[in-house]
Fold this protein.
Amino acid sequence: MHGLYNFVRGPLAWVAFILFFGGILYRLISMLLGARKKDGVVFDYFSLYYGLRSIFHWIIPFANRNSRQRPIFTIVTFAFHICLLAVPILLLAHIILWDESFNISWWNLPDSIADIMAIIVVACCGYFLWRRLTQPEVKFVTFASDYVILAIVAAPFITGFLAYHQWFGYKFMLILHMLSGEVMLAAIPFTRLGHMFYSPFTRAYMGSEFGSVRHAKDW
Amino acid sequence: MIDINSWDWDTGEKLVADTGGWKDKFEWVEEFQAGPDGEKVAAIVKSGEGEFSVCVNGEPWENTFDKIWHLRFGPDGRLTCIVQTEMEWTVAVDGQTWENTFGYVMEVKFSEDGKNICAFIQQDGQYGAATNGEPWENLYSDMTVFAITPDGQHTAGAVRPEPLGEGEIFKFQDGCYTVAVDGKAWDKKFVNVWHMTFSPDGKKLAVEARSNLYDYTIVVDGVSWSESFPCVWEPIFNPKTGAIVAPVRTAGEWTLAQDGKIMWDRFFVQCWHQMFSPDASKLAAIVAPKYGRWTVAVDGRPWGTTFGDMVTDAVFSPDGTRIAAVGKEDYDWSVIVNDTVWPDTYDVVWRPVFSPDSQNIAIKVEKDGLQTILMNGRPWKRECEAVWDPVFSPDGSKMLVRSIENGKYHRRILPITEITG
Amino acid sequence: MAEGQVIDGIYFNEVIEDAGLDEGTKKLTPEKIERVINDVLKGETGARLKTYVDTCIHCGLCSNACHYYLSRDKDPTYSPAGKVKQTMWEMIKKKGRVSPTFMKRASQIASTQCCVCMRCAMYCPFGIDIAYIMSVVRRICHLLGITPLYIQDTAHSHAVTMNQMWVKNDEWPDTLQWQEDEAREEIPTTRIPLEKEGADIMYSVIGPEPKFLAQLLYQAAIIFEVAGLSWTMPATPGWDNSDMAMYTMDSEIMGRVKRVHFETARRLRVKKIVMGECGHAFRSVYDRGNRWLGWKMHPFYIEHAIEFYYNLLKSGKIKIAKKYEEPVTLHDPCNVMRGRGLYEMARYVVSEMCADFRDMQPNREHNYCCCAGGGVINCGPPYKMTRMLGNRVKAEQIAATGAKVVIAPCHNCHSGLEDIVSHYKLGTHVKFISDILYEVMEKPGAV
């Protein structure tokens, strides 16, 4: 068990981070080079002002019409994404690991808050799952891979929560938690989870076209 | 070509007509046209109720018509227009109509010497061409493009010999169009036939065609290039060798091909309006070296200066050493000569005119509603209601300027130093 | 039109006979399909399509944008992402190894169940341009020769005549001269100046105007005459600004037609191009055809009729004699609203002309498409019910205003809304801006 723990904590973590950062870099560079090659128009019409204008209207809840039309979804998705990003980065246990490994640390969330946020992530995943299973317009465009992706996202939070509360064996859960977190990190660049890096570009491009060419709003 | 030596190159200034006064004589006066030698100015006028005529130097034609349009001077100074009387259309030349009348006349073209006047006509729902009033023996159920030889001896059109019903897409895709020269159609049919160019001697005809929905090529006297491309533009003839050069598209980029073979090593976002220098030693085209930027490329090498809106009307000097063109950026027009832009911008710039010795360039320009002549970048001192393209004297020392100022049409012969200083 | 059924393992939500699709599909082979799809995916598209496909998280948030989806009781086969699933995702996943029947269905979806109105791009949180993806599908269908018959015929018309309606070279100037004659009955000095080199404005219209709606040319002549503008219309091909080849994705013909249009303006040495009340034509000149030809923007300023009327009213060149009394509403055409942001100008024009203007909800860039645009109405009578059943929301939107007149400053919208109004028995009339402007403006020279 200890050997496995060390492997997951050490080499595997390195692999996951390398895949994560390397993968993102690779995907972004190949996207930009590919665009340069055959979709040069994307750069020709790109406008920083209109790109940012569009992004702002979409990262602020209820700043666009679609989010106002779907208040529950909007609340869920913003809660989900905020917690999804905040918990792994601001969790005390994670910061301690950073501190131990690289001697760097930053402000942390109180554990009780982080705990609630993890529950929010999992609950939101449940909501997404419910949508995929029951809402015809979502169900119709759902592939098996979408459930896998949802599971990849939910797993680190479920296991993390269980480990923190020391249910089903702390060490075992901890290893599962680290493993699932690593799987998620490694999966981001190579699955639709990559939308976290692509979407600012697609959004900004659409914002540029709408703003600077078509003189219209896109929110 | 017209011998301009016979024109009056000595009379400095001649008031030809008080054009401003015409509107007192007629209910209305349409756009003025000036004759090539400057001796005449004319306009379509409304001479009475439902009655139109042409006024030349203040005197209306004796004939009147129900409708008149497309008033143009031919290169030899004859004044033509398309006229209608009693529901029949024909062409009137210096007031005399052709004997034959037609269901409609769409377009009139002149031979270079002006002797032959060719018209694109419709008669009883059939289409074709007429030269000096004589229509083709065979007319066609449709004709879309109209071309003539430089001497006007031959006329051609893109024709559809057989009827094509509404929605017959598969019949269309089998090829329904071909080329008729002097009324005789080629055997081979194409899906589309577009721009057509006769060789300078008028013996060969090259056309842009599409053999199916996807393959474009150049067809010469009915024979296609063995190569096809995803798109092509209009072909031209090399005036010396007779080779045919056309812009072709390949892998999303454009370049020039000669007789089917790619001839330039550079590809462009766009490439069109190719032209040979008079001695055929150089080949230039208007190109977009990068997306949204336009310039002139000579033998495949683009100029450094580019324009965002367009580059147009590129002209080789007679000696082939210079190219003048019109560039447009942010809706302002300017002149560019051998990659150097003249300083001022204008609301509109017309086609550059070189002096016979290639030393001087004169151009009609317009700014704030007033027109003038620009020479080598310097404007003429007069700002006019209208000017026409300048014409250099055969020795290049003088220039014919036709203009209307304060309602007066003048013909002026200026020493070129009057503008160049 | 029959209701949904499965044919050769492919679900068709509507079963429609269309010789263009039926005959075209018969000629397909799996090898040809695979080659063409991969040629397009590898040769003509790139990072943009890939990024769109990789970024879409299948959330379904685009659904509410689509008038087909909303009008079809939220049938997911009509949702934007649902349409991508039934077309592009499958082509990419199978690497082009899809069946002829699949391609027939793909063509039906892309050509007749999507108006490429771009509303869904405004509802996707990532701004994924599904209209672009559908256009790529149309491009593949064009290269495979499976495009609905009527619009294919129209694309042929563009290729031959450079206009939309097989209008022959004589018919165009003849029609203008006829309308000029008619207009002189009202204002004797009216001219439609043909081929006037150096005029300020080249006025261009779409093929249906000389073919079916010549009174619009008459009205335009009166408006130009009263406003005292320097304008011209070409007598040659190049007068038509429309472009259904843009919608069949015969891009080479689209480019050719746009080139002739721009080159005609260049030849006439005008300062700008003013376009009649048409949306798709505007898109083809302003946004699509120019780009294919290599223009980032345009060689000439392009002024849509809405902006043109706005300037005329704002500057006082046209004055209103008496406002239009009946209650009116305004349909925002996608291609000049989402496509050019003319919504406030349109509202100014309508408010100046009409005493009782009632806005539809939602409006401006969020307005629902007419369901005729994107070439759908040009796919002809077989698809009339596709459009009627596919746009119940538009009927409800119009009915809710209580207006007696719908102003639609776009030809496709105009025709599409006339069908909607009659199908849903709304009892309203559809008019162009120029219909009303002509009626209410001061005409000083009139006899």
